[in-house]
Write a structure and sequence with these properties.
Length: 152
């Protein structure tokens, strides 16, 4: 009799565990697991608009999911709507990706906006990451209370 009760209970327990796992993993999968992780908005040294100084400001994304995510068409923008649209880029599972303001050679871990002027304001600003559809994925804001960078 005990065995029958246990066998009858097992499918219900397995179904509940499966349902719980599905509900918990769905929001992370829907968001792609990609978040703004760190912003260096005030490049080191004087703001002389050199390429080195421009590349000293960047936004770092982190993929917290267990699979690679395509960022094709996603947008990284500031409060003034300076927009960087991601080309056909993938960020690997558990990996980081920096988006620099200036020019450089794109790699798997570093992308360049090829701008000749600063994007991120030193006194206050907000970095926002959206999908190609316009759905907000992540944002990070700072004010003058933050020294030169902000972990989000």
């Amino acid at each position: 009799m005990r065995t029958v009760r246990l066998r009858a209970a097992l499918p219900a327990l397995a179904g509940a565990a499966l349902l719980t796992g599905t509900l918990l993993s769905t929001p992370a999968e829907a968001a792609g697991g990609v978040r703004i992780h760190h912003v260096w908005f005030d490049s080191p040294g004087s703001d002389n608009r050199s390429n080195k100084s421009l590349n000293g400001e960047w936004v770092q994304l982190r993929n917290t999911s267990r699979s690679a995510v395509s960022l094709r068409g996603w947008v990284l923008k500031d409060a003034s709507n300076h927009r960087y649209v991601f080309p056909d880029v993938r960020i690997g599972a558990g990996k980081y990706l920096k988006v620099h303001t200036g020019s450089g050679s794109d790699t798997a871990s570093d992308k360049y906006q090829d701008r000749r002027a600063y994007v991120w304001n030193n006194d206050r600003d907000t970095a926002t990451l959206t999908r190609a559809s316009g759905t907000k994925v992540s944002s990070c804001s700072w004010t003058t209370r933050d020294p030169s960078d902000k972990y989000c």
